[in-house]
């Protein structure tokens, strides 16, 4: 690795730049540019992970390079182009390791993976959750800490999808 002008930027400026990119874009653009930049990447705590449509190679790179405590936003998907992705991701990490997670999006999450989210109420920083109609998770235990809840469904009857959304208090919405 050689030296470049980015090495002269303070860490805070690089962090401000990273705020505009998904994690895979940051790693493709900045990883191994210089030793200084790589070190900044490994210490950054604001990663936004969007696994909705991601190549397996990029998925593996991110899972090898990021610690769960560095993730602020996570989108997991078990759609047609990312089958069983959530199960693979959760084999690397457990949900309670995401201590700085602020936003969580679950898209068509596999039934085998959904049980991993049973301790979601322990994520004290979580303020936003988006769940599609096929993901069966109860939001009762975390509703009071959320500022934003989105439940996408084709039906008005959420109980058919395993969603438990009774009349709940939402003091932060």
Structural summary, described in words:
- With 173 residues, the chain is of the alpha/beta class.
- It folds into 2 domains: 44 residues; 129 residues.
- Strands 1-2-3-4-5 form a 5-stranded parallel sheet, with helices on one face.
- The longest helix is centred in the middle third of the chain and has 10 residues.
- It is globular.
- About 9% of the residues have low confidence.
Write the layout of secondary structure elements.
Layout: H1 11-18, H2 23-30, H3 35-43, E1 47-50, H4 56-65, E2 71-77, H5 85-92, E3 103-107, H6 111-114, E4 128-131, E5 148-151
Parallel strand pairs: 1-2, 2-3, 3-4, 4-5
Short structural summary:
The protein is 27% helix and 14% strand. It has six helices and five strands; from the N terminus they run H-H-H-E-H-E-H-E-H-E-E.
């Amino acid at each position: 690795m050689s030296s470049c002008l980015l090495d002269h930027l303070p860490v805070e400026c690089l962090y401000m730049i990273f705020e505009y990119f998904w994690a895979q874009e940051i790693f493709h653009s900045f990883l191994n540019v210089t030793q200084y930049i790589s070190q900044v990447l490994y210490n950054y705590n604001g990663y936004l992970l969007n696994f909705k449509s991601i190549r397996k190679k990029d998925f593996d790179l991110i899972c090898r390079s990021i610690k769960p405590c560095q993730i602020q936003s996570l989108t997991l998907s078990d759609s047609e182009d990312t089958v069983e992705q959530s199960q693979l991701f959760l084999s690397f990490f457990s949900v309670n390791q995401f201590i700085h997670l602020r936003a969580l999006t679950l898209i068509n999450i596999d039934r085998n993976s959904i049980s991993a989210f049973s301790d979601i109420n322990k994520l004290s920083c979580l303020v936003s959750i988006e769940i599609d109609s096929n993901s069966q998770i109860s939001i009762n235990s975390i509703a009071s800490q959320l500022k934003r809840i989105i439940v996408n469904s084709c039906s008005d009857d959420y109980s058919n999808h395993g969603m438990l959304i009774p009349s709940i208090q939402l003091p932060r919405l």
